Automatic annotation (TrEMBL):
Domain Glycosyltransferase 2-like, first and last residues per copy: 8-157
Organism, as annotated: Mariniflexile soesokkakense
Enzyme class: transferase
Superkingdom: Bacteria
Enzyme Commission no: 2.4.-.-
Pfam families: Glycos_transf_2
InterPro entries assigned: Glyco_trans_2-like, Nucleotide-diphossugar_trans
Protein name from the UniProt record: Glycosyltransferase family 2 protein
Keywords: Glycosyltransferase, Transferase
Keyword Nucleus: no
Annotated GO MF terms: glycosyltransferase activity
């Protein structure tokens, strides 16, 4: 019997001592048998690394820890990938959890179709008691099911996402992220050679910008089962950066520059009016003529 491909569970960390033990437990409890765990740490100054080191003796899965000077979120993700030996990359963030069968089920989907390079799943939302509020409730109502407005067909519990989504009117409507946080995604490592790594100049949208880029060449498969738990809490990087991040303002510029010809006509016209210098001049002239 042929050995199953190696999957690298990549865990970027920074001061994650509060939840990292739960995260590590979910990693070592995977039913998929051929794994390694790659930890890329942005110079944590709490007990994150000592907690992770304690798992080296608790599992047969190789646990490799790399500590380095921080250079940003994207750089830490990419450093994880650089150090990974696996044929496949499975991100797991320091506060998230995987169901025991997560990687097993994802790999079965990926290995059946060469046109699929990314597989993702639905996710549970776990809210810390200190983070429960009406605002959080509204967030879950908006972002709890990221694919709800895509009208995807499901066959045997699997939906396919391809570049046709760029033509949907829902593409530039919230939620802009049609995939999910990195913890819900598993992808083939050789995809990096074709489309490049995560953009290190972005902070908030670098995960779904990467997935959108991948759709230009390949399909993504969505498992309509909650195989990952995404945790909401006060110490999340997104919450710490709230008010500082301007990535969302860049998103339609990226779409305009990279996906314009795949969009529907209404969206094309909207972006032309907003970003085309010639179109802005024409609109100005038209307004003056009809004053």
């Amino acid at each position: 019997m042929a050995k199953l491909p190696l999957v690298s569970i990549c865990i970027p960390t920074f001061n994650g001592e509060k939840y990292i033990a739960e995260t590590m437990n979910s990693a070592i409890q995977q039913t998929y048998p051929n794994l390694e765990i790659i930890v890329s740490d942005d110079a944590s100054n709490d007990d994150t690394l000592s907690i992770i080191e304690s798992y080296i003796s608790k599992t047969r899965i190789p646990v490799k820890i790399y500590n380095h000077a921080p250079k940003g979120i994207g750089a830490n993700w990419n450093y994880c990938i650089d150090k990974a030996n696996g044929e496949y990359i499975k991100f797991l963030f320091q506060d998230d959890l995987l169901e025991p069968t997560c990687i097993d089920k994802m790999m079965k989907v990926l290995e059946t179709d060469n046109s699929i390079k990314i597989v993702l799943s639905k996710r549970n939302i776990l809210v810390d008691e200190s983070f429960k509020s009406n605002k959080t409730k509204q967030w879950i109502e908006m972002y709890g099911d990221l694919q709800s407005n895509l009208n995807l067909k499901s066959e045997n519990g699997i939906s396919i996402i391809d570049k046709k989504i760029f033509k949907l009117s829902a593409f530039l409507i919230e939620p802009l992220n049609k995939f999910g946080e990195p913890s819900v995604i598993l992808f083939k490592k050789d995809l990096i050679k074709e489309i490049g790594k995560f953009r290190e100049d972005l902070i908030q949208i670098l995960d779904f910008e990467f997935c959108n880029r991948a759709l230009l060449k390949y399909k993504a498969a969505l498992i309509n089962e909650k195989l990952v738990t995404f945790r909401l809490h006060l110490e999340q990087t997104t919450n710490k950066n709230e008010g500082k991040i301007s990535d969302l303002q860049k998103f339609d510029v990226i779409v305009y520059n990279q996906y314009f010809w795949l969009l529907n006509n209404k969206t094309k016209m909207k972006l032309l009016k907003k970003h085309s210098f010639i179109m802005k001049i024409l609109v100005t002239i038209k307004r003056k003529l009809f004053l």
